[in-house]
């Protein structure tokens, strides 16, 4: 079956909103398409700091449908009939009366012709984007009354390799076949033809689209950083989840903690690193806190990460100075 590919390209979406936003987008898009007779098969949503991506397969067109709907009884209150007519957007002349043996009821025969899949998608997508639920949303210049988690910058929408025309612009945007790579390492825009091409080109542009793969790269890279220094990473599944929503191109780096702070309780050190800086703590093999931390950068650094590490060490000294004050 032909492939549907949608990418919502945004400013950085908070990590805590990404997975739920992708799930909601997948659910609402699937429901909206199914309501028009278009079933999305093998639908999967990916999420990251700057993009939510949906890929699925769908038939080229919906099938013509003939449907019979039973309305209220003939002797029911007028409000019931008015509601039935309004819900189906028909006039009273479209109804017929029929005795079911349990009373005389109104019946409506509906015929829905088949529609091209791109027409269904183009009509459904703007409506879905307008009702996507977010814990917090915002407006921005040029978006009118449209709200989103963060400013929406581009909509990529391809069906069977062709751009899907939207029934109406969303925040002033129309559908394209264009995406962009990593904000700093490969910011240029480029066209894609299908999902495999999309994944390959973005990987070349230093973007790991799959959140599960980013999570694995972060976990394995952080453990390897610690192991190479003869240390053990303090496992923190929740922090791995959060950091995977902060970076598109995980680059684990090992930093050193100023020894003057190592007399603080381990819980104080770890809390300050985790909550304020999203750093991973380390220990010696015997379990003693080690004066090192792992930071997951979004770029490797032209100097191998030396300047990034130094900057993070400087920030951490300030954090630990605050921690010492409150602990004392």
Features:
328 residues; alpha+beta; 15 strands; single chain; six-stranded mixed beta sheet; four-stranded antiparallel beta sheet; 8 helices
How would you describe this protein?
This protein has 328 residues and is an alpha+beta fold. Helices cover 35% and strands 26% of the residues. The strands form four sheets. Strands 1, 2, 3, 7, 8 and 9 form a six-stranded mixed beta sheet that branches. Strand 10 and strand 11 (189-191) form a beta hairpin. Helix 1 (15-35) crosses helix 3. 31% of the residues are buried.
| Fraction in helix | 25-40%
Overall 3D shape = elongated
N-to-C order of helices and strands: EHEEEHEEHEEEEEHHEHEHEEH
Number of strands: 15
Quote the distance from N terminus to C terminus.
66 Å
Query: What count of helical segments does DSSP give?
Result: 8
Beta-strand residue fraction: 25-35%
What profile does the largest beta sheet have? Answer: 6 strands, mixed
* pLDDT < 50 stretches: none
Cα-based radius of gyration, to the nearest Å = 27 Å
Based on helices, strands and strand pairing, what is the structural class?
Answer: alpha+beta
Average pLDDT rating: 95
In short:
The chain has 328 residues and is an alpha+beta fold. Helix content is 35%, strand content 26%.
């Amino acid at each position: 079956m032909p492939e549907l590919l949608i990418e919502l390209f945004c400013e950085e979406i908070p990590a805590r909103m990404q997975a739920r936003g992708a799930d909601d987008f997948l659910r609402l898009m699937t429901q909206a398409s199914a309501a028009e007779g278009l079933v999305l098969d093998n639908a999967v949503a990916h999420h990251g700091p700057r993009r939510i991506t949906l890929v699925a397969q769908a038939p080229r067109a919906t099938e013509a449908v003939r449907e019979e709907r039973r309305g209220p009884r003939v002797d029911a209150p007028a409000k019931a009939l008015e509601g039935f007519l309004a819900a189906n957007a028909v006039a009273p002349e479209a109804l017929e009366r029929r005795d079911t043996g349990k009373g005389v009821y109104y019946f409506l025969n509906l015929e829905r012709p088949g529609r091209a899949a791109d027409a269904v998608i183009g009509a459904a997508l703007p409506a879905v984007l307008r009702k996507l639920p977010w814990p917090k949303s915002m407006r921005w210049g040029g978006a009118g009354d449209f709200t989103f988690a963060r400013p929406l910058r581009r909509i990529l929408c391809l069906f069977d390799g062709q751009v899907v025309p939207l029934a109406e612009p969303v925040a002033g945007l129309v559908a394209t076949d264009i995406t962009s790579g990593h904000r700093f390492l490969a910011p240029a825009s480029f066209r894609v033809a299908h999902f495999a091409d999309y994944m390959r080109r973005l990987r070349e542009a230093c973007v790991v689209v799959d959140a599960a793969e980013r999570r694995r790269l972060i976990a394995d890279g952080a453990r390897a950083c610690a192991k190479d220094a003869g240390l053990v990473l303090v496992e923190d599944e929740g922090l791995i989840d959060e950091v995977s929503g902060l970076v598109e191109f995980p680059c684990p780096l090992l930093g050193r903690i100023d020894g003057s702070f190592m007399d603080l309780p381990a819980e104080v050190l770890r809390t300050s690193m985790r909550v304020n800086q999203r750093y991973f703590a380390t220990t010696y093999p015997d379990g003693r806190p080690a004066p090192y931390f792992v930071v997951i950068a979004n770029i490797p650094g032209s100097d191998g990460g030396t300047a990034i590490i130094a900057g993070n060490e400087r920030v951490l000294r300030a954090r630990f100075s605050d921690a010492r004050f409150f602990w004392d």
